[in-house]
Amino acid sequence: MATSGGRVNRGPAAASDNRRAILRAARRVMAERGYRVPLSTIAREAGVGQGVLYRHFPTRLDLAFAVFEENVTELEVIAADPDPAAIGRLWRCLVDQAISSTAFVEMVVDARRTLPARDFADRLLGLVEATLNPARRAGVVPQEVVADDVLLALRMTLGVVVTAAAPEAVRPAVDRALALLDPPWARPGTGLSR
């Protein structure tokens, strides 16, 4: 059965494939064009109709949260590692995600204002604490460093990301800012090697 757009409608059998295609397209398109990109653009990129997109993700926030959840899953894998160097890997992943997923940073800020129950702050705090504890015990990070310090440095980094003059200027600006900031969890020996 063909739809009016020439696509073949495989019905429920295609649901999981469609969902994956929508998530891939949303990650790519939102990263390139921002969180507020028309959802029709994402549907077109995914090769599905807008109705299919809305069946899977009734709102823009639902879609963005689903994509962002993939980021959180990546962080959870790192945080599960008891190695004291995991804090450095978690930090680098957070910074890389901030640079590549600026649209999702916008989404999280938006969601904190409109949907406080979906705030990732507590989850993120727990992931940072999980990696900080072994790092402090091993002496890799000073005892006085707390998870809120790491999240403050991340917010500072996000400020650099969202205010960079051009996309190609983001990474050098972030690297320079972090060199000035010199967070102890991002120093050699904490799992960070470039």
UniProtKB/TrEMBL annotation:
It comes from the Bacteria. Residues 16-75 form the HTH tetR-type domain. InterPro entries: Homeodomain-like_sf (IPR009057), HTH-type_TetR-like_transc_reg (IPR050109), HTH_TetR (IPR001647). Gene3D superfamilies: Tetracycline Repressor, domain 2. PROSITE patterns: HTH_TETR_2 (PS50977). Residues 38-57 bind DNA. Keywords: DNA-binding, Transcription, Transcription regulation. It holds the Pfam family TetR_N. Transmembrane segments: none annotated. PANTHER family: HTH-TYPE TRANSCRIPTIONAL REGULATOR BETI, HTH-TYPE TRANSCRIPTIONAL REGULATOR RUTR. This is Helix-turn-helix domain-containing protein.
